[in-house]
Prior knowledge:
By secondary structure, the protein is mainly alpha-helical. It has two domains: 9-103; 107-195, Orthogonal Bundle (Arc Repressor Mutant, subunit A), CATH 1.10.10. 66% of the residues lie in helices and 0% in strands. It has helices spanning 9-20, 24-34, 41-58, 64-83, 88-96, 106-124, 128-139, 144-151, 155-174. Helix 2 (24-34) crosses helix 3 (41-58), helix 3 crosses helix 4 (64-83) and helix 8 (144-151) crosses helix 9 (155-174). The model is unreliable at 1-6, 86-92 and 177-196 (pLDDT under 50).
Amino acid sequence: MRYRGPWLENDVEQWFTREILPLEPMLDRYLRRSWRDQLEVADLRQDAYVRVYEAAMREKPFNPKHFLFQVARNLMIDRLRRKNVVSFDTFADFDGVEADSDHPDAEEMTAARQEIRLLMSAMGALPPRCREVVRLRKIEGLSQREVAQIMGVTEDTIERQVSNGVRLLRKLLHGDSAPLEADGRPRPGRFKAWSK
């Protein structure tokens, strides 16, 4: 995905309308199934929307659906704590309902963020021209031809710069002991998309 600039309020509104509001029927079913007092379902839904919107102003959620359902679940738990009426059946129901279990949990997301910070730090250590070529080719996803036109160089130059950049990043991230394929290319690992 190409960089879209700062995450502005207008961007959040468009994202919210596109990604969150279509989930309302599913969210309502989840809340009605999980919450005993049906009169509070609309309030829970609105509170979830507010929390999701405020969180999105700081950082776009990785998986909007999963994030929305986690927020709703946490809201219900908070309300139960405030009411000081804890039903073990209710908590059992919450644990059994997962919006989407194929997505990373908080620990995995934290590890992924740390890897991204490490990668960005390593990117900063690349020579400026090489860094720009790697950014355009590997992060922005532009074709070799597009990058060559932007940079005003040949496609062969771009290919060499990307190869050198990925090799330098590999050394910075993994040291010289990282395993290589027989042809000298990095063996696919955590950053396998970068070695293509």
